[in-house]
Each structure stands twice: as C-alpha cells, then as structure tokens.
Prior knowledge:
The complex is a heterodimer of chains A (236) and B (381).
Chain A: E1 2-13, E2 16-27, E3 31-35, H1 42-49, E4 57-62, H2 73-78, E5 81-84, H3 96-103, H4 110-124, H5 139-152, E6 157-161, H6 169-182, E7 188-192, H7 196-202, E8 205-210, E9 213-218, H8 220-225, H9 227-234
Chain B: H1 13-22, H2 25-44, H3 48-71, H4 82-104, H5 109-114, H6 129-153, H7 158-177, E1 189-190, E2 194-195, E3 198-199, H8 203-229, H9 231-247, H10 253-279, E4 281-282, H11 289-302, H12 308-327, H13 332-346, H14 352-359
The complex binds adenosine-5'-diphosphate and magnesium ion.
Amino acid sequence: MSALVVDSLSVVFGAFRALDGLSLAVDAGEVRAVIGPNGAGKTTLLDAITGITRPRSGRIVLGDGLDLTQHGEAAIARAGVRRKFQKPSVFPALTVRENLSLGCGPGCPPGAQADRIAAALAETGLEARAGALAGALAHGEKQWLEIGMVLASEPRVILLDEPVAGLSDAETARTAELIATLRRPDRAILVIEHDMAFVEAVADRVTVLHEGRTLFEGGMAAARADARVIEVFLGR
Amino acid sequence: MSGAVDLSPRVPAVRRIGPALGSDPLLASLVVLVLAAALGLVLLQPAPYLVNMVGQLAAFAILAVSLDLVWGYLGILSLGHGLFFAIGGYVCAMHLLAHAYAVTGTAPDLMQFMGWKSLPAYWTGLTSAPYALVLALGLAAAVAFVFGLASFRSRVNGVYFSIISQALVYVAMLLMFRNDTGLGGNNGMTGFSVLFGWPMGSPGVVTGLAVAALLTLAGVLVGAKVLVASPIGRRMLACRDDEARLRTLGYSTTRLKLGIWCLSAVIAALAGLLYVPQVGIINPRVLSPDLSIEIAVWVAIGGMGRLGGAVIGAVAVNALKFWLSAAMPEAWPFILSGLVLAVVLGLPNGLLDLAALRLRPASLKPTSLKPTWLRRGGGLR
Ligand SMILES: Nc1ncnc2c1ncn2[C@@H]1O[C@H](COP(=O)(O)OP(=O)(O)O)[C@@H](O)[C@H]1O
Ligand SMILES: [Mg+2]
C-alpha cells in the first residue's frame, strides 16, 4: 500500500519549472532513493512535501488520504512526515538531548519522551554526547543527531536529503546501517543521495529525477543499465 | 546557556523554581540582592529621593526583562516596547486621578482643561485599583495580541518587525499628543495626590512603592527564569535560532511567539504601572521612539538572553543617567552612544561578559564572538 503519493506535481519559480508534473508513489515499508544530477529538483520535491514550498499544481497525499498541499509545515510534521535537511539543521544553542526532546514534537505524550530520547541516543550512538551543545558536534555527529530528531517523533514518512554528503567512508557505512534500522513495515523512507554505492546498499527501488521529471524508476541494477540514465549522469 | 534543567512539563511551576535558579547562580544572587534591597529600604529608611530612585530603577529593570524575554530568548527585537509601558502608565495615572477626585473631591486639572463637568464614561470604574490593574494588563495584552497576530501570521520577522513596532509606538505618541484624546494631550497627567487613601509624597508611600517595584522585579525574574528553563524555553531558543526549522518539527511558532509576546507586553505594562506613581507624571514622551530604542540599549549593554543582563544594563545605564543628567545633562547622549559602541566592540555579549571573565578566569573566551542578535538562523535546505 502506498504511504506517500506524489501526483503530477509542478513547482514553478518564476519562469523556471523546478518540478514538472512529477508523479511518485512510495510504499509503506519501502526505502526509496531519489537520485539525479544537481538541480534536478530533488530538494524542491522535499520542500513541496514538507510544505516549505507551495506547488503550482498537483497533489501530495499520505496513505490515509491527507492532502499535504492543503497544510502548513507544522501540521505536516504533526501528521508524521519528518525530514533531515541537506544542510545539517540542528539547534546549536541546545544540547543533544534538548534537540532530541524537540524532535519528539509537540504531540509526544510527556511520559513517552524520556524513552524516545534514550532510544534515539542509542540508535545514533550519541549517548556519550547527550549533554554536549549541538553546535559543538562534528559534522557527522550533527547528521546523526538530525536523524535522531527525526526518529524521536516516530514518523510514518521519513525524508532524508543527502544524509552522507561530506561524510567519510566509515561514517557513510555507519549511516547506511542506521538507515537500515529505520525501516518499519508501516513507514515509508525516501532518501536523496548522490553516492551510488550508498543508494545500492540502502534502497529497494530508485527514482531517477532529471529536470523536474522522472527519468527512470526501478531497481538499482536496471538503473545502471538504462541508456537514458547513463546519458544524464555521464553526459554532464 | 539553556542549563542542565530538564524537567518534564508535568512538574508544577513552584517545584521548578529551585532547579531553575540553581542553574543560574548569577540570577539567583541578583534576586537575593533585590529582596535584600527591599528589606533594606524598609529597615534603614534612607532619604526619600534615594528610595524613589531605587524604585524607579526597579521599574526600568522590569521593563528591560520584558524586552529580553522576546529579544534575547525569541529573537524578536521590539523597538516599540514603550507602548506597553505607556499603557500601564496611562491606566495607572487615570486610576490615580479618579481615585484622588473621589477621595478629595477636588477636580483634577485635566477636567478643568477639558471643560468636563464629570469624568467621561470610559473612566468608569477606574477608582477601583484592582479594576485598573486588570484593565492595564488586559489592554496591553490585547494590543500586543492584535499586533502580534497580524505580524507573526504573515511572517513579518527581523528588522521589518522592529521597524513596524517602532512605527506603532510613534503613531501612539502622535495620538496621545492630541488634546481631544482626553488623556491630557501634550501635558499628560499629573497631580496625583492620593494612593490607596494615603498622601502621595509621604515617606511611607514612597517606600511602599519602591518595595512593591522591587518585589515585582524579583517575582518577574523568578517567573521568567522558570519559563526559560522549561521546555517552552527550549522552544524559544530554537525559534530564535531557526524558526523555519522548528516549524518543520511540528511546532506552531506563531502561537509560541504570540504567547511570549503578549506575556512580555503584560510585564512591560506592569513596569509602567509601577513607574508612574513614582515619577508623579505621565505624558506622551514615554511613547517617543527614543525611549523604546533605549530599552534595547539597556538590554544590549547588560547582556541579552540571560535575564540578569537586562537588570544590570537597565540599572547601570539609568543610575548613570540619574547622576549625569543632574551633573551634565548635555553630555548624556554622547556618553550613552559611547557606552553602546564600547559594548558592541569590546563586550559583544554585554556587561555580563565581564562577570563571566571574573567568575571563570581560566576561560577568557567570551561565550560567543558574535552577539546573539547578530547570529541569524540559516535558511533551510
Ligand atoms: N527558492 C527558489 N527560487 C528559485 N529557484 C530555486 C529555488 N529553489 C530551487 N530552485 C532551483 O530549482 C532547481 C532545483 O533545485 P533543487 O531542488 O535544490 O535541486 P537538487 O536536485 O540539486 O536538490 C535548481 O535549478 C534551483 O536553482
Ligand atoms: Mg539538493
């Protein structure tokens, strides 16, 4: 069953069509990768899903029928859609623990908060840094903290924008493991990434985006063999 | 900065006072000092002019704390907080005039000036102090609510908000300068002769007012500290540093900002309410844009985002002003500008940086090189 459906979505900036009638459906339990050259519209897609950018036309519907294009950022997050941004976005003046407590979200039952924070600390391996200011973390730790903030809210749709950009090989492998643990039968995960090996390791299917449109959708092996995909990626 | 206090939202507010103050020794000592000052005024009975000055400083400190709450913790720089101060002040003045008229039977100058036979309908009930208190605070909250809702909902932020808030206080000043507003116009309101039935200038009343201002200051400091150390305080800091990000975590930042903004306005009105009987006059000049900017200067000089800094800044600047405006009034603007420059260049986080250096000589580094108000949350993506 689809957990997230993007239906002929168009986002326009001035005369420029960043997304051009894009359609996409992610199933519950699936990890979907979205790849594509720089400027393909990957981040814009996440902006539209999270309510930061209003689409010109099209719909974005959750599994239960909620149309996200009709709601603001906060309401979309409360509906269970959470995102890790391309640029690490943690609150530098707050500690790791405080960041996670904010990550739990306003709807979190007070009794559940401590457990969720503990679980997020354990899964991201940040226990030893719980009291540190987020501003003092290393780049990789910030990325994990942000994933932990997503986790703490127990979301049903997770959007990850380039979670391994700027990470070392060891950190990338660690992040791939972390994403594998996020997978749940009632949860859809959408990962944007450039790193093909990483995509192959974490994703079930891949959507190749080019100039705001779907160029290809299917398995990673098939994507590698697809003539149009090769042209877009090698033709740059 | 946010401290180690990590209390679940269910802990009652009173039980949070200890941990909140414990996490901030500077603020705790300040509260003790304020309470000691109140006790000192009662026991030692210093000269009335001194008592009166301490009381006025306390009112300014409350005003500064109200601004720090929205500026230092929420990143909303209001350059119009004089408006809420004035609302408290004007309503208090109306009460004092109505009360004096009722007690003494002597018509206030304002009535003769306006040619009124009796006080008009909108003065009804103002002889009652509790009603005046509710009216002042409620009016400040209502004005703040309308202005805040309009601005925050349409996402007016940063310097645009500051400019609009300044425009608001300016418009209010022009309005109050008009005589037909019926609140004294240019001359304002003065000649308050009675307070709760007691003659206004008597030492007991002077001390009582100053002690009330000091106790209110202590209460406001403790309450504000409990608030900023609570989960709401964390949301405030998060909103200050990156509002768009906080929204994508599911929080309605409009509601958060509106709530704290109204609270801040109420505290500012409280300050005005305590100030006016101590200076014995209110006129439209409290609504001048200069005063509203000066409040921000006090907070910046003391050190924003730490409550204690606001108190230290307000007291230091105004004590200096009291002294200098007697000694050499013409030099005051230059001295104030010099102070601002010195602080901005030398102590980016205000005078509290000095205290931090004294307390922790090992870490000579200021908390941050950039003042908080220059640190802007980056855009998302
Ligand atoms: N707010 C905006 N205003 C104008 N153009 C934008 C805006 N956001 C993105 N774009 C443009 O849309 C295109 C897609 O951007 P983006 O979605 O960030 O690409 P990517 O696939 O690299 O994440 C780019 O050409 C970018 O310049
Ligand atoms: Mg991008």
